Amino acid sequence: MKKLFALLLALALCLSAAAFASAEDINVAYMPNYASLWSVVTGIQKGYFAEEGLNVTLYEFADGPTIIAAMENGSINLGYIGPGAHKLCIAGRAKIFCMSQIGNSDAVLASKKAGIETASQLKGKKVGYASGTSSEMILRYCLEDAGLVWEDIQAFEMDASSLANAMISGTIDACACWSPSTGIIINACGGDVFPLCSNVNFADRDVSLASWIVLPKYYEENKDLVKRYTRALYKAIDFASNPDNYEQVAGWVAAQCAQDLQVAMNQTGDAAWPNSAEIKALLEDGTMESYYKVQQQGFIKTGAVEKEVPVTDYVLFDNMKDAFN
Q1: Distance from CA of residue 164 to its chain's centroid?
Q2: Which tens digit of pLDDT belongs to each residue from 302-324?
Q3: What is the pLDDT of residues 222-247, one digit of tens each?
Q4: C-alpha pair distances (Å), 125 with each of 114, 120, 186
Q5: 191 phi-psi bin (left φ>0, alpha ψ -120 to 50, beta other)
Q6: SS3 state of residue 1
Q7: Which of 35, 62, 186, 237 could cross-link 160 (Cys pair, CB 3.0–4.6 Å)?
Q8: CA 278 from chain center: how many Å?
Q9: Distance between CA atoms of 127 and 119, rounded to whole angstroms?
Q10: Distance spanning both ends of the chain, measured CA to CA
């Protein structure tokens, strides 16, 4: 009996080792915030990717355009992007293979010491933004509603990671950024800095969608891999979207970003976190496609996109549906 047990144990270990050895490696890009990591870090920690035969390695980037550039040079296979970088998908540089969430964490922050109390007082002020991201989008909306144009401000293009330091140091008078930088800046400035506007102010003309993306060529060559990754994401979001699990997920995010747990917990209110059933419903009744259409119309209105493109040209709805099977 002991010999039989030892034989079975050895066989199980061999099968386990063989399964691990055959796992496909994927390099995945993220940004250091809860919204970017909530599902993927859960999928890693809960073993959902491993169940699909995938070995995920995470790489940090400052913003979506940089992630797409890294995908184009071959160092990254799949990536997460915030709202602003979706215009690059509309331009054909990448395809969306899964919706992540609808965010509400972007804001234009201003300093009272700089003499700013309303958006119209941004005129002539030094304003920092991250080009090609949701930072630029929300700043343009803010200016538009205040009756200002881009040339009315002293616009300073910055790397996303530099915006917080510039605002806290007083180098700039206002900035457009996203979580967790929004909270970090407000807390560090002791009541001087406040939000002029956020995503909520522009819900009538734009949907702050975040998505998972893949390059067209990589997708054509790895359709089954992308479907399995999406299936693992669905399992992860069902766990992570449950409020009872927020603290555990925030702990994983904090560890990945080398942040304090409370910083990550503060970001759990940055979006509406869908579960897989909600994603499926959005797919089936056409609501998700309408979200991406509204988002594209917002880009067209601000001049970031020249002309309308069929959403199905850059959103892989079939992949999202197939991953439920």
Answers
A1: 18
A2: 888 999 999 999 999 999 999 99
A3: 999 999 999 999 999 999 999 999 99
A4: 8, 10, 19
A5: left
A6: coil
A7: 62
A8: 18
A9: 12
A10: 42
The pair phi, psi for residue 321, each rounded to 5°, is -70, -45
Alpha-carbon gap, residue 260 to 31, rounded angstroms: 16
Rounded to an integer, what distance in angstroms lies between the CA atom of residue 239 and that of residue 245? 7
| pLDDT tens-digit map of 154-182 | 999 998 879 999 999 999 999 999 888 88
Three-state SS at 9:
helix
User: In this structure, what are the phi and psi dihedrals at residue 309, rounded to the nearest 5 degrees?
Assistant: -125, 140
Contact status, residue 209 vs residue 83, Cβ threshold 8 Å: yes
CA nearest to 319, candidates 220, 210, 208, 237: 220
Looking only at the bridges linking them, the beta strands covering 107-111 and 126-129 are unpaired
Q: Report the predicted TM-score, pTM, of the whole model to 2 decimal places.
A: 0.79
User: Per residue in 12-30, is it b (16+ CB within 10 Å) or e — as a string?
Assistant: eeeeeeeeeeeebebbbbb
Closest by alpha carbon to 104, among 241, 207, 248, 218?
Answer: 207
Length reported for the chain: 325
| Predicted confidence (pLDDT) per residue in 14-71, tens digit | 444 444 447 899 999 999 999 999 999 999 999 999 999 999 999 999 999 999 999 9
Contact between residue 153 and residue 114 where contact means Cβ atoms under 8 Å apart:
no
Q: Could you tell me the two tokens for 78?
A: 């799949």
Which distant-in-sequence residues (6+ apart) come within 8 Å of 158 by Cβ?
Answer: 128, 129, 130, 166
* CA–CA separation, 256 and 34 (whole Å): 10
On whether the CB atoms of residues 241 and 253 are closer than 8 A, the answer is no
